[in-house]
């Protein structure tokens, strides 16, 4: 049944395509908020747009939703061009960071709003609203106003309201960032469960790498309005395409060093403390390069093969492990995870497998 | 010092304002109330009896209502869509707001003078309409009911508009966006989201604008026909006080004027109680 004669609000599709989507705010002198973003999302996929604040991920989502017009580029849903359609004709469900629940409507009326707009008959509306509220485990709250609910409950209402219309695409804009840490984990599991049960294509915006890694089938890392890397969580986590992505994915040690030798993919770097072998992630041709190492991929021991020797300068206790700050000859500083406490001033070797030392060209010559 | 004490001390800052209210409003009001029950001749209710039996007095209530209610309704009806369209910040927003608010700075007498000149039978509007053969004789927009109604709309609109603008811009725009993603057209976003959230403010603006319009005096005299169709209640009070020197009757008219305002305001606020009056944002910010 088609409740929306003026547009194809429902129905299946094969893929959503963003073609060089660009959005400028303000004058032409300012850098675009979104700069030529291209992306294809397959039906049923859960895609996370990940990046620091101001990277353009929310702008991208709002462009897809139709809340922000494109400066140039196009958005296609199969052969249907979307970017000229107003948001109410796109048939997407959106969950907002601030929830955006209608404060004057009960939970029931909030959730069934989209069904009312589509002219769904009352009996079916009732049935579908009840099902959506059951899905987010909010039975019995139908007659409450949003103001009477907790933050987590409001978020569930927002999710129910977005999915009850069986949207072609679910858009989520940092839906968990207003919740406390415990609730955030709970709701994350909830979102994963709902996606598994309904299989709705979902685009999820977040600045939290854990959220993106645990939820998404594919992650799109963004920076300065451009796509830096698109890949599975494993790829993005283990093989960041560039320094931006590495920095964002927890490669806390970014050591700018002299390049000693480049042999195929293997790079030897040198400092006052000796040499370190690593793997090039981009082509290395300058005299300097940056070695990206994750603190938890460093093994601390008395001596090691591919290692940097140094002195323990500080230890932060984290319960499960410690974060150790090591100072090597020449003033080089690096952070490593160690299972037990270490004495300050002790001499240690921070060993890393060469394939876990990712080498990127230094940004400035 | 405890926080409570400090709050008490801060409360003292209200004292000057409270004193002014007592001296300039509550005392004269009580004085007038007492005076209205102390006529020069007759029993305590003689002034009220005079008002409600004299054919030049009691109809002024309805004459005034016939001006104040349409003017207020028109102002609220105009201000709501204009304010709604101005809710988003834009380059021309400031210019438009300034133009719309200027009449408020002019004062009723200046507006009346302007209208007399431009809208009078020999003003440019009348002449233009005749020149274009849109009117056969001089167009009479002054010295009658229309003149006063127009001036009430011109002088009252900026006030209602500014009030409505603050209510409209207080509503989180993300609510309209959420409604849009759920399939609501712009009209339905207004109808189902903005309007219900604006109604309490609308009621407040209506009350304030009505009270202002009901006490119309200068424009009723300057632009109206103060002997007939625009003989408003404040003219009756003025005549009693400064032409007949009957302080008791004048106070009585003032009291009745206040009572009518109070009845209308209570009725509107009573309706407002039935509306949603909670927060106008949707969740955490």
| % residues in beta strands of chain A | 25-35%
Helix/strand order of chain A: EEEHEEEHHHHEHEHEEHHEEEEEEEEEE
The end-to-end span of chain B amounts to 34 Å
How does the overall form of chain A come out from the CA principal axes?
elongated
Residues in helices of chain A, as a percent range: 10-25%
N/C terminus separation of chain A: 62 Å
* Helix/sheet category of chain B: mainly alpha
Strand order of the largest sheet of chain A: 6-7-8-3-9-10
CATH fold-level topology of the largest domain in chain A: Rossmann fold
The amount of helix of chain B comes to over 70%
Uncertain residue segments of chain B:
none
Oligomeric form: heterodimer
CATH class assignment of the largest domain in chain A? Alpha Beta
Compute the number of helices of chain A: 9
Rg calculated over all Cα atoms of chain B: 23 Å
Question: In total, how many domains does the architecture of chain A comprise?
Answer: 2
- The CATH architecture of chain B comes to Orthogonal Bundle
Q: Calculate the mean pLDDT score of chain A and round it.
A: 90
| Most residues in contact, chain pair and counts | A-B, 36 and 26 residues
């Amino acid at each position: 049944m088609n409740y929306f004669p003026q547009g194809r609000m429902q129905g299946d599709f094969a893929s959503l395509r963003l073609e060089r989507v660009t959005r400028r705010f303000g004058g032409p002198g300012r850098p675009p908020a979104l700069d030529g973003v291209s992306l294809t999302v397959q039906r049923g996929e859960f895609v996370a747009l990940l990046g620091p604040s101001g990277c353009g991920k929310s702008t991208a989502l709002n462009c897809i939703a139709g809340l922000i017009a494109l400066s140039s580029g196009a958005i296609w849903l199969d052969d249907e061009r979307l970017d000229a359609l107003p948001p109410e004709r796109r048939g997407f469900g959106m969950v907002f960071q601030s929830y955006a629940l209608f404060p004057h409507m009960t939970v029931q009326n909030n959730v069934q709003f989209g069904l009312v707009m589509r002219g769904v008959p009352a009996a079916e509306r009732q049935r579908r609203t009840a099902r959506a509220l059951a899905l987010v485990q909010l039975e019995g709250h139908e007659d409450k106003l949003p103001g009477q609910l907790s933050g987590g409950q409001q978020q569930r209402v927002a999710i129910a309201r977005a999915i009850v219309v069986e949207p072609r695409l679910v858009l989520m804009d940092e839906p968990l960032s207003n919740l406390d840490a415990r609730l955030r984990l709970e709701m994350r599991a909830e979102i994963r469960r709902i996606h598994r049960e309904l299989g709705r294509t979902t685009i999820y915006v977040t600045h939290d790498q854990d959220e993106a890694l645990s939820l998404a089938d594919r992650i799109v890392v963004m920076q300065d309005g451009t796509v830096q890397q698109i890949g599975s969580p494993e790829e993005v986590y283990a093989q960041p395409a560039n320094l931006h992505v590495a920095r964002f994915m927890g490669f806390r040690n970014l050591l700018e060093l002299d390049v000693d030798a480049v042999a195929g993919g293997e790079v030897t770097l040198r400092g006052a403390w000796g040499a370190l072998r690593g793997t090039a992630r981009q082509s290395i041709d300058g005299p300097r390069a940056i070695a990206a190492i994750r603190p938890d991929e460093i093994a601390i021991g008395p001596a090691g093969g591919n290692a940097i020797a140094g002195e323990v300068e500080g230890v932060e206790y984290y319960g499960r492990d410690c974060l150790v700050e090591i100072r090597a000859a020449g003033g080089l500083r690096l952070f490593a995870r160690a299972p037990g406490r270490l004495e300050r001033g002790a001499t240690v070797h921070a060993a890393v497998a060469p394939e876990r030392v990712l080498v990127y060209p230094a940004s400035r010559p | 010092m405890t926080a409570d004490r400090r709050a008490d001390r801060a409360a003292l800052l209200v004292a000057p304002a409270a004193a002014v209210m007592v001296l300039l409003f509550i005392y004269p009001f009580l004085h007038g109330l007492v005076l209205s029950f102390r006529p020069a001749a007759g029993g305590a209710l003689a002034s009220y009896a005079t008002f409600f039996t004299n054919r030049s007095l009691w109809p002024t209530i309805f004459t005034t209502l016939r001006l104040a209610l349409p003017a207020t309704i028109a102002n609220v009806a105009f201000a709501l869509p204009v304010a709604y369209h101005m809710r988003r910040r834009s380059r021309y927003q400031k210019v438009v707001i300034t133009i719309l608010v200027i009449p408020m700075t002019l004062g009723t007498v200046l507006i009346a003078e302007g209208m007399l000149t431009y809208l009078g039978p020999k003003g440019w509007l009348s002449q233009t309409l005749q020149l274009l053969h849109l009117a056969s004789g001089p167009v009479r927009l002054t010295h009658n009911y229309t003149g006063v109604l127009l001036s009430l709309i011109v002088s009252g609109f900026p006030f209602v508009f500014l009030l409505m603008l603050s209510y409209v811009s207080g509503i989180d725009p993300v609510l309209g966006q959420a409604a849009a993603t759920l399939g609501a057209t712009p009209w339905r976003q207004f109808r189902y989201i903005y309007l219900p959230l604006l109604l309490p403010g609308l009621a407040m603006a209506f009350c304030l604008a009505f009270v202002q319009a009901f006490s119309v005096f200068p424009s009723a005299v300057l632009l109206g026909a103060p002997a007939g169709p625009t003989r408003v209640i404040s003219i009756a009070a003025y005549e009693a006080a400064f032409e007949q020197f009957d302080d008791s009757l004048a106070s009585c008219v003032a009291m009745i004027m206040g009572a009518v305002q109070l009845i209308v305001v209570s009725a509107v606020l009573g309706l407002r109680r039935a509306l949603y009056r909670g927060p106008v944002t949707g969740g955490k910010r």
